[in-house]
Amino acid sequence: MALAERPSPAWDVADLVCQRLLVVPNPLAAWDSDTVWVSVWDSDPGQVLVSLVLPRESADPSVQLRIGFAVTEESPELQAERVVAALRRPHPLNGAVVCGGYRECAEAYGYVWPPSLEE
Asked: 13 is in which domain, residue-wise?
């Protein structure tokens, strides 16, 4: 997948989400999560995608998740707050899909291991 073109309303939201997640202390620390990336892809330019790793990036085994949030007509600031609030919820996150890591870790957090990651 390629990144969507800038500038766009989705990128405005994505940039604000990234700023809010990459602060100290980590907003996702309660769930022992780290942000991997925040992006907008050309395949769905109306959605902000966030990738997280559980437990934190230095842990092994871990699982990488991807979750999308639709961009609305609300202000980018309000949308970014909504996205960060959703990411702070207990796992499993509604709508999150596994995109890497270890099966046993994914299942321990309540996520389904996708057939696309079968070896």
From this structure: 9-117
